[in-house]
Amino acid sequence: MFTEQHADSAIDSFFSLCACFVCGGRWEPPRSEEELRRLWGLLECHSLTPILFHCIDDLESSLPEDRVSELRMRRLGQAARNVLAVHQLEEIARAFGERGIPVIALKGAAAILWLYDDIACRTITDLDLLVPPWAVKDAEQIMAQLGYSQEQGRTPPNSPEFEEIEKLQRLERGQHLRPFVRPGFFSVEIHTNFLKRRKKRYIAQSEIWNRTVALTPDIPNLYRLSTIDFLLHAIVHYPQHLESGIPPLKFLMDIALAVRKEGDQIDWNEFWNTAERWDITSVAATVMATVGHNWNLNIPNLPKDALTLNADTLIGGAVPLHLRELMAPEGLYYRKGHPIADVFRRYWNRVSLAGALSNRSSRLRYLLHIFFPVPDNMRHRYKIPEGRSVAPYYLIHPFVLVKNFFAGLASAVRASRTRRLR
Questions:
Q1: How far is CA 192 from CA 42, 172, 223, in A?
Q2: Hey, which residues does 104 pair with through a beta bridge?
Q3: Spacing of C-alpha 1 from chain mean position
Q4: Around Cβ 364, how many Cβ atoms within 10 Å?
Q5: Pairing mode, if any, of strands 213-214 and 187-191?
Q6: pLDDT (tens digit per residue) in 251-290
Q7: What pLDDT does residue 235 have?
């Protein structure tokens, strides 16, 4: 269980509730209104308010009547949203199946149908799906036929060729396609890989499809990751939130529930071997040690020197310095070079990306639009008001590009001098 003691009893109550939800047992809510208010805030912050739903009946004598009524209404609302999500998954999986494309549900999309006995006890904000890399174009067509459109970036697209290259770059980095949106439905993020910038992402990509499991017999063509791959995906996903702020504890809850539900069937030797192949052993050891310690779960073959995340990290995302390098950069691909060479490489890479396009005319249009973007893009770049002609800005744009190149080069020269002085 969460064995650390805190001066803040609301935190103790929060940890106790999480442990009871995973391991069973009766949870005693705080008695004072102030502690209850702070507990409620912690649950909201970590997207865990729904875990109160499983013990509503037991709370009727402990919580104020208005708070119990609010919980019941929220449970109905969350259940309705998750039923909608299941309907979406069924519609998408059926459409993909008609084209012979398998679909893997990731994260919450899989958890609500597999790990949670009560569908209302897990919040989801979108649907994450994984498709084979060869199916990307088909996936875009299918989603359009189902009434979805893709979100646009902050900057108006320069040209269709730029959009195609941007998509290829996103997939190369292990990111998802631009989200697919449809009024009244959850947004859908389609992935071909889930290790993002990590070096061994292609190894994982080739392995996971051989171990998929049918998610539910009620939805043909919809799969989930094997338990091992589900755990490893959750493990590498959790630190990504540490980079941007407070990581929701619901992701560790998924891990704990998967271990509790499937732990006896997991091949733990294969789990750790897979983590090593994917170059995520250290972060896997830290996350699994944290889950095992805080939920009193047995994690076989856990490295003896595995570190655990403390309460401050779990609650507020404050990662101790000795763990920061383990939780974020391990296995990530960063190119470190000379600052001046990086300037030339950046511009050369931008030009050489034309080679990723399928035909000569597309490549020529891409290169042309580097120097002469489409009008909407130019209007955005130079904050040109509607009604004013864009034409004069096409005369100055090539000179702006040259100026930016030499400004970047000057900055790189200063950086290289500073590095030599050190």
A1: 34, 9, 14
A2: 130, 223
A3: 27
A4: 13
A5: unpaired
A6: 999 999 999 999 899 999 999 999 999 988 988 999 999 9
A7: 92
Comparing C-alpha atoms, which of 279, 277, 103 is closest to residue 207?
A: 277
Helices 281-295 and 9-23, interaxial angle, to 10°? 100
Domains and CATH numbers, the chain: 9-71 (no CATH), 82-327 (3.30.460.40), 339-421 (no CATH)
What is the C-alpha to C-alpha distance for residues 224 and 299, in angstroms, rounded to an integer? 22
CB proximity list for 290: less than 8 A, separation 6 or greater: 252, 308, 309, 314
The rounded distance, in Å, linking the Cα atoms of 398 and 404 is 10
**How far is C-alpha 278 from the chain's CA centre?**
18
What is the pTM assigned to this prediction?
A: 0.84
**pLDDT-based confidence at residue 302 (cuts at 50, 70, 90):** very high
> What type of residue is 35?
E
One-letter amino acid of 364: L
Q: Tell me the pLDDT band of 1, cut-offs 50, 70 and 90.
A: very low
For residues 129 and 169, the model is more confident at 129
How many angstroms separate the CA atoms of 283 and 281, rounded?
6
Q: What pLDDT, in 10s, does the model give residues 112-135?
A: 999 999 999 999 999 999 999 999
Dist. CA 212–CA 330, nearest whole Å: 26
Over the stretch 35-59, which tens digit does the pLDDT of each residue have? 888 988 999 989 999 998 888 877 7
| Residue 227: partners with Cβ closer than 8 Å, 6 or more residues away | 213, 258, 262, 265, 266
Query: Which are the contacts of 55, defined by CB distance < 8 A and separation ≥ 6?
Result: 20, 26, 27
Phi, psi angles (nearest 5°) of residue 306: -65, 135
Q: Return all residues near 197 (Cβ < 8 A) that are at least 6 apart.
A: 173, 174, 332, 333
Count of positions (residues) in the chain:
422
Confidence at residue 164, expressed as pLDDT on a 0 to 100 scale: 83
